[in-house]
Design goal:
The protein has about 325 residues and is mainly alpha-helical. It has 13 helices and no strands. Keywords: Cell membrane, Membrane, Transmembrane, Transmembrane helix.
Length: about 325
């Protein structure tokens, strides 16, 4: 917990520092003016989109829990979803969410195998949907972004390629277990030769167990097209909530924008910052937002940044941190 607290403080401090720098180099008085005139109704609706991203991810987990005949309350899956966003926000490449969720679910009596199966299934669907949306976003927004910030627009291609590569690797693992096994043995053997890996045999055995588990999960998914369809729709709804936040931020401060353009640009920004290893992509997210959205918000960019970053990042840290503390306290009370 101490490490999590330290990581969260570093990520928050970095994000706040970048925001302050941006506010100082832009028109600070204009930012305050836009913030003071922000419409509470649109702000509330923007927050509802953040809640929507949590809600639809929890629905996806519930779908996979039902597929595996697990009677996990939806309220708990919602809680574990928000906890996952907290750990994603304080770890490099958003890598800490799923391991934390597995640990907390295990403490509630949900086996590691079952929780891992749910989360792996959700991850597979997420990668498929984000890749599909990435194609649409690049086709729609790349010319617009390239015209405004041509030197950075190419990064969207790399971000899309990275997410596509993950999906391709997952499909390869699913369709060709024999090739995958040989590839794993080859990679671990190479790492052992260059002294990065010490216990080669034990690591190969562990990797083979994980591979067999992955294949089993994929077979379960393929045999259930209705489950796949429902999970894909709920994941699509989750991502639409996420990329719609800048549009409602614009409405809250009275700036008219085109919905399809601004959501496509938001998705491109998301693809770009997925390359960044800092916790929560802190630092780059804020700078990227200003670069990508300056042409939309003009003098209101400072106010838009503050509102957007609060609902897209700080809300995850605040509510996720509170629920993490509650879950740790719940376990302590249960032991008592």
């Amino acid at each position: 917990m101490k490490k999590s607290t330290r990581n969260s403080m570093i990520a928050i401090a970095l994000s706040i520092l970048i925001i302050l720098i941006i506010l100082l180099v832009t028109d600070f008085s204009k930012s305050i003016s836009y913030l003071s005139a922000a419409k509470p109704g649109w702000i509330l609706l923007t927050f509802s989109l953040t809640v929507g991203t949590w809600l639809f991810e929890a629905i996806t987990l519930k779908v996979f829990a039902l597929m595996r005949s697990l009677s996990i309350p939806f309220t708990y899956l919602f809680k574990i979803t928000v906890i996952g966003t907290f750990f994603n926000g304080i770890t490099p490449f958003s890598s800490g969410g799923q391991p934390a969720q597995i640990v907390f679910m295990q403490r509630r009596g949900i086996s590691v195998g079952e929780s891992t199966a749910m989360l792996v299934s959700r991850f597979l669907i997420y990668q498929f949907v984000i890749t599909f949306l990435g194609v649409a976003a690049i086709l729609k927004a790349y010319p617009l972004v390239a015209g405004k910030i041509s030197n950075l627009a190419i990064l969207s291609i790399f971000g899309f390629a990275l997410n596509s590569l993950v999906l391709v690797v997952l499909i390869l693992f699913s369709l060709s277990p024999g090739f995958t096994e040989k590839l794993i043995r080859l990679v671990i053997g190479f790492l052992s030769k260059i002294k990065i890996v010490k216990e080669e045999r034990e690591l190969i055995e562990k990797a083979m167990r994980e591979l067999r588990f992955f294949h089993s999960s994929m077979k379960d998914l393929i045999r259930r097209p209705v489950t796949l369809g429902i999970a894909s729709l709920s994941t699509l709804a989750q991502l639409i909530c996420m990329i719609s936040i800048p549009y409602f931020v614009a409405l809250s401060i009275g700036i008219p924008v085109n919905y399809l353009e601004i959501t496509a640009v938001q998705l491109i920004l998301f693809l770009v910052v997925s390359l960044i290893p800092t916790p929560g992509a802190s630092g780059v997210s804020e700078g990227g937002y200003v670069l990508f959205f300056k042409s939309f918000f003009g003098e209101g960019i400072g106010a838009a940044l503050l509102i957007w970053r609060f609902f897209s990042y700080f809300a995850n840290i605040i509510f996720g941190g509170l629920l993490t503390a509650h879950e740790i306290g719940f376990k302590s009370r249960s032991r008592s």
